[in-house]
Structure formats: structure tokens, C-alpha cells
Hints:
Elements: H1 2-15, H2 23-33, H3 38-67, H4 70-86, H5 88-98, H6 103-112, H7 117-153, H8 156-175, H9 178-184
Helix pairs in contact: 1-2, 1-3, 2-3, 2-7, 3-6, 3-7, 4-5, 5-7, 6-8
Amino acid sequence: MIYLVLGAIAAGFALIPLPIFPSWIVVAYMVVEYKLSIPLAIVAGALGTTVGRVGLVAISRVAGERMLGRWSRGNLEYLHGRLESAAGDLGVAVLLAASPPPAGVLFIVAGLVRVKLWLVAASVFVGRLIGYAISVGGGSLAATALADQLRGLIGPWSVVVAVAIVVGVLLIVLRIDYRVLIEDHRLRFHRGRRGRGDDMPGGA
């Protein structure tokens, strides 16, 4: 039962894209607090994180179709096509498995560009298995003290800052004109001016 609770907690952390509390600390803390089997805890945490990340990608995919304008959808479709042709599924899988910060924004973008859900699931599970094995297996005792310290730091202001970071990074990512960036090697942001020309990728 406790492993199901651990998986559910990991899923919740993965579903909420806020850079507040590293999930490996939660897994390591529960290993020490409840004397759990480290291999089973790692698997439970990896499965939970996988469920949460897939859920985040799926929600982002649906929300993107309903909320993004025509230019943004076209821009992201162009990025998706170039990612698939340049890096292929393997390159995308490695990026998702590594989950560089801000990881939450990375998975939101993965949903917006419609990365395959099976690829997200496989990448996250393998990446978290390796990451948790290294972090939890080598730092369980340290995680107990660190979790206590971090718990005291998390409050309303830290949540506000985390939300601001996620929203800010996401807005920047959505405004980059990827056609200009990839083909002309120039960084240009779409300013959202009115007009039909601004509805297609490449319009500024």
C-alpha cells in the first residue's frame, strides 16, 4: 500500500509543472521514514512520475489545441516536424529522459508539439529509473535532513515565484519564431500584431 502512496505522490509532483521540490528527495525520504525497499521504491516512484508526466503532456496537448492561436499552432507544428527530421524519436527520447530544467515547461512544450505519448512514457520511466537509482540509492540519509529544510522554505511566495518562472519561460518558448531561428539562424520573437500575415510561422 505504501508503494502505491509513493507512486501517487510522485505522479502528483510530475503533474504539477512547478520547480519547487525535487521528486527524488520525496522518494528517498519515504525510503528512510518507512524503511522501504530501495528497488521497489525506485520503481514505484518512476512509474508514478511517468503517469504524471504523461498526464501533463496530454493536458497540454488538449489545452494547446483550444487556447493557442493559428500562428502559434503553425509555429509549433513546424518545430515538431524539424525535431522529428533532425533528431528523430531517439533524440527526443534522450531529451525527455534527461529532463533538463525547467522540466515542467519541457513537458508542456512536448504536449504542445504533440510528441507521441508512448515516447514520453518510455523516456520518463527509463530516465527516472536511472535518476532515482543514482539519487535515492546514494543519498537517502542526506535526503531526510534536506527534506526537512526544504519543507520550511516552501510557502506562498515560493509557489508564486515558481509559477512566474514556468509562465515566463513558457511565454518565451511560445513566442520564438522557430522557422526564422532554424532556417536563418536568427532569434526573433512573434509580437502578435494583427493581420493575416501574422497568423503563419515567420510573421513578426
